[in-house]
Amino acid sequence: MTDTVDVGAQVPHVTSLPGQPAEMVSSTASTGLLSLSRPPSPPRRTWAVSYQRTAVVLDVTAAALSAVLAALLSGVLSGLFGEGHEATARLFSPTYLTITVVAPFAWVAGVALSRGYERRFMGVGTEEFRALARAAVRLLAITGFMSYAVYSQRPFLSRWFVVVFFPILLGVALLLRFALRKHLHRRRSQGKSLQRTVVVGRADSVIGLIHELRRVPSHGLEVVAACTSSLDLDAEEPSSVIGVQMLGSVRTALDAVDLVDAEVVVVASHSEMTGPELRRLSWGLESRNVDLVVSPGIIEVAGPRLSIRPAAGLSLLHVERPTVDGGRLLGKIIFDRVMSVLISLLILPVALVVALAIKVDSRGPVFFRQDRIGARGEPFEMFKFRSMVVDAEARLADVSAQGNDGNGVLFKQRNDPRVTRVGQFIRRYSLDELPQLINVLKGDMSLVGPRPPLRSEVEGYEPDAVRRLRVRPGLTGLWQVSGRSDLSWDESLRLDLRYVDNWSMILDLQILWRTARAVLRGSGAY
Q1: Do residues 468 and 345 both lie within one domain?
Q2: What is the pTM of this model?
Q3: pLDDT digit string (tens) for 230-247?
Q4: What CA–CA distance (Å, rounded) separates 458 from 477?
Q5: Is residue 33 part of a domain?
Q6: Domain of 481?
Q7: Domain tally, the chain
């Protein structure tokens, strides 16, 4: 049966797209109807099926490998802690052999129940990894109950097996899933494994959303068409905006989906669609097995802060307030202090070599001290290894007259004549920032946070930029792992505000992990 959608009085003529027969589409502008001559074809989801199957195989591998390693390690630990040969022998009994066989199936079932294989979480966000953690905790609880509550007289599992198995399982599963995601991101950067997407909404919202989706191709949404009623569309030729075909108004979305064989429809904010129209659109997409995504128009708000709040028969979007105090802040402070001590001990030999090289290379002190602005606008003295000549500040005016390679707010020059030979090397690999661990220990800075600004920068801040000062500045942050000095001021500010509004320990750990790779590459550092 042919689908017919009322598009109103003004309907542009839509021709067939490359590779599609012209008889597929017919336009009846006099009646305001756009009709399709054949039923929609099922969306292509081969990449999703392949990703799911690979994820299952990797989880089976992780569980089987972890069970074998846990049996071996727990046998060693049982012997070391005096549980005797009997405990060690039990590890190779039929019970443990059965566990090795059953563990992969139990793990896959646990991940599935925790929504670890859902297509909407594939390759984006942290929910895919959270599902693995939830599955591990649930499986641990069930195993502990079965082993120690049901069989309280003689637990059928060694305590060492339980202690060793689940950390190994979670660690291996996370690493394998991370590798799978990176493989998917590489394919998407090559234009593969993308979901054909139609964007619906007002012209300005549609254009902004298309720019954002193109900026981060790893999200996997390839915009192939858009529907908007806010443009003056040519009646003879299909319109095109920033390289995307404009296929009618917001009420022709179903026709556009069928025409381009889309897999996802994204409704931008200010879509000009009423509630009933949006509901009917969801019904039409449901029958086509096409996903519907609605953009709330809230910029840089992470998923954990958003939830649906039902009220008076409506589904309201509830945005949690950012939390920068209380128990979470205390946890961050403890983490910063402990990690800074450990890192300082690890890099002490490197720091001594750098300090000696600086002293030999040029006259002057080893450390460079500079006033910076911290949380709540409080000034503090920041430490760095000296990478410039002693009179660098006095020569700033002369050097800045030769040009600025920075972001317009912060002065940077790629071939700054004030930088010493050792300074060029330590700047490239961020070794000059190691003394900032002293500031972390003192409480002036955090391991992760916005870049510590100069007083002159803060004095020129616009209202939005002042929000950066809500949290302590960081030794590293989103700005460093996303390009460092190559970023414009607007991009740096956007990243800092995203961090301030969505801070979490998980985000801090992700940034620390990405920092190591960014430092080794040395990109954006000068």
Answers
A1: yes
A2: 0.67
A3: 665 444 444 566 778 888
A4: 18
A5: no
A6: 327-521
A7: 3
